[in-house]
Amino acid sequence: MEGPLPYVIAILAILATIGVVIVLIAWKKRNPEKVSETNFRVFFIIGIILIPVGVGSMVAFQRMGAPFFIGIPLFTMGVTYLIMGLANKDKWR
Does pTM surpass 0.85? Predict the structure, then answer.
């Protein structure tokens, strides 16, 4: 991409992230007494989903000629979530 478009996209992504953080902080302050426990079963399920997505994106990017390591963060997050879910299996809901 050429021109100012990549910079505009980056600025919009940063502003969207800041907006989400502000909304989450405001929501948390509005409901301080409602604290829920972490459901580690969801971490396990997300890990099961992200591992094949990461491997698939590595294969897809490599076939397109792009560096395959673009999919490594998804694969790593999947393995991390899977381990977190299995390590806390006794706390599943």
Answer: no
Three-state secondary structure string covering the chain: CCCCHHHHHHHHHHHHHHHHHHHHHHHHHHCCCCCCCCCHHHHHHHHHHHHHHHHHHHHHHHHCCCCHHHHHHHHHHHHHHHHHHHHCHHHCC
Same-domain status, 87 and 71 = yes
Q: Domain count of the chain?
A: 2
- Domain region containing 44: 37-93
pLDDT, position 34: 63
